[in-house]
Amino acid sequence: MKANIVILPGDGIGPEVTAAAVECLRAVAKNHGHDFQFAEHLLGGCAIDTEGTALPESTRAACLAADAVLLGAVGGPKWSDPKAKVRPEQGLLGLRATLGVFANLRPIKVHARAAALSPLKPERLAGVDILFVRELTGGVYFGEKTRTPEAASDLCRYSVIEIERVLRRAFEFAQARRRKLTSVDKANVMETSRLWRETAVRIAAEYPDVKLEHQLVDSMAMLLLTRPADYDVIVTENLFGDILTDEAAVLCGSLGLPPSASLGAGKVGLYEPIHGSAPDIVGQNKANPLGTIASAALLLRYSLNLEAEAQALEAAISATLDAGIFTPDLGGTYSTQQVTAAVLEQLQ
Ligand code: NAD
Ligand code: IPM
Ligand code: MN
């Protein structure tokens, strides 16, 4: 098949990890007789430097016209002055809103050998396979912000429609998995959470085969570390999902491993690792590329409908981990390029 894929390397280690993922996608295309065209565009700090805006119009238009978008990461100390007028992260939020990708899938799978590097006891990690569905285009990220010299505020708002559509996605994924859905909120304090919970209870009637449970976000943070194997699909609002998934990455052994897929009602999906631009290791050929390569596998699955190809790439990642070919975040001594070469070798 033919596919146009927009690559947004972004900032920090973004260009290093997207280069790795593009190499893997090229290898998949060659092995399976596909024609993938790649076009690189600017997003984030690099776009601020050259265009004065974090999401240039040319990038927006290219993403809307693409079959899928693969992103590295944006942001870094150069653009982090609290008084800055434009921020790299605004570009990413603008892109998510533009593409309408309200459901952010963040699968947390524990690979046995990598998990040995996790600070958690191995018996707690056995059988962990969680799919987070994070609401991505609403909540406090997109509410009105105010600032005076004396005070600041960020409004958290959710409409019923925003909650319903992400919950339906989560129920559908749960139906195709182990049929358990945990909805995470802060309904003991927040009005948006009470609306969220009420909506979850109502929508659950449409999915009688799925067992719905509710968990407050503070205790969820604890349970993720004490009983992670108990969870199947976890659905939650934007900010809680952001925080809980970085925590869940600890189960995998490194923040460099989990991928993500952001999907909406539109045709274009956005794929990115869950980590950031890692300014502390930029340019050292140390970044773990596997989260981005695994995001490319999700791109093959969800945007291009190439399930066999997605599985081939996931198997190559798994075999690389089986062989203990680890970047330093996993306690290894292999470089970004050596890990990528190992995945490419496995793909053959
Ligand atoms: P971070 O995820 O960039 O880094 C946290 C820690 O994890 C660092 O020690 C880093 O070296 C390590 N790490 C992250 N990814 C790694 C990888 N692939 N391989 C090896 N180690 C890895 O989080 P931060 O330091 O809080 O944020 C830095 C910048 O990244 C900020 O500007 C933030 O806004 C941005 N950010 C962007 C995204 C995104 O573009 N989607 C996501 C998160 C953070
Ligand atoms: C992520 C990041 C982003 C978020 C930032 C960079 C806007 O942390 O993708 O997890 O908070 O969504
Ligand atoms: Mn995050």
Which ligands appear in the coordinates? nicotinamide-adenine-dinucleotide, 3-isopropylmalic acid, manganese (II) ion
- Bulk shape: globular
Residue-averaged pLDDT: 97
Question: How many helix segments?
Answer: 13
Element order: H for helix, E for strand: EHEHHEHEHHEEEHEHEHEHEEHHH
Instruction: Give the structural class.
Output: alpha/beta
Radius of gyration: 20 Å
Major sheet size, sense and barrel closure: 10 strands, mixed
Integer count of domains: 2
Q: By CATH's scheme, which homologous superfamily of the largest domain applies? A: Isopropylmalate Dehydrogenase
The largest beta-sheet arranges its strands as 2-1-3-12-11-4-5-10-8-9
The helix fraction, in percent, is: 40-55%
Beta-strand segment tally:
12
- Measured distance between first and last alpha carbons: 20 Å
CATH class division of the largest domain: Alpha Beta
Q: What is the strand content?
A: 15-25%
Spans of at least 5 consecutive residues whose pLDDT stays below 50 are: none
CATH architect. name of the largest domain? 3-Layer(aba) Sandwich
According to CATH, the fold-level topology of the largest domain is Isopropylmalate Dehydrogenase
EC number: 1.1.1.85
Pfam families: Iso_dh
Binding site for substrate: 96, 106, 134, 218
Subunit structure: Homodimer.
